[in-house]
Design goal:
This protein has five helices and 15 strands. The protein has helices at 33-49, 98-104, 143-155, 188-192, 228-234, and strands at 9-13, 53-57, 73-76, 79-82, 108-110, 121-124, 132-137, 159-164, 176-180, 183-186, 200-203, 215-217, 220-224, 240-244, 261-263. β6 (121-124) and β7 (132-137) form a beta hairpin. The structure holds citrulline. The site of citrulline (CIR) has 18 residues, from loops.
Length: 265
Amino acid sequence: MSRIFDFTDAIVRRPGSSVVKGLRAGGGDDPTLAGVLAEHAGYVAALRSAGLTVQELDPLEDFPDAIFVEDPALVFTEGAILLRPGAPSREGEGQFLRAVLHSRFERVLEQTDGYADGGDVLVMPDALSSGRAFIGLSARTDRTGAEALGRLLEELGYRAVVAETPPEVLHLKTASSLVDEETVLATAPLAASGIFAGYRVLEVPTGEEGGANVLRVRDCLLVGASYPRLADLLDGYGAEVVVLPNAEIAKIDAGFTCMSLRWRA
Ligand code: CIR
């Protein structure tokens, strides 16, 4: 019986030189191009080490944030969804994913109403469906978009739950991520909101909130190098904790989940 994170395949997009101009919620300096390239390459290598076959797409210089492929799309064994990302500079990214999604998936659904970023969708195991998809409302995902996306997810067999996210958070998955089949990692305010009732909730250690977006792939759990207490906390959930440098990509608000589309083929 495969687990929800037993992915076989992934799609990533290599950074172009424009990546250093990526959006960042808190302002701050540009990352170095060399640093982003090295950290992105380390991430792709970690996906391959975890056992995934990774397709690397060419850079899109006109879209500095295009390495974050899981904002304009979501993928599942059952099919793919092209989204309408909520940042105006990112709205055009989806058209550069359409062809590759059609080449890899029999079903490709498209969102037509409102805005939603894939970073606002956290899928957890669910006894009653293929998965319970929490859709966070944020500055990128509006209620019209969340409800439209919920209908598309339901077409693919997932149960959609629209939830509020703490106001200072970029995306739902900036503050939460899947650890194992029963366990979700969440920052204290998101844990306190009660949306994850029924799952075991691990709270991100105080001061390490920036690390809340970890990525479970098969028997590996990718964790940022700046979060040692978090790495300790996550040891013991059936996965090898793989610590990855992310100081440069973090300057443009990168998380580990948003830099790939992953699915079990
Ligand atoms: C953005 O602001 O859109 C990018 N600089 C970062 C997106 C990160 N994606 C995510 O958290 N899902």
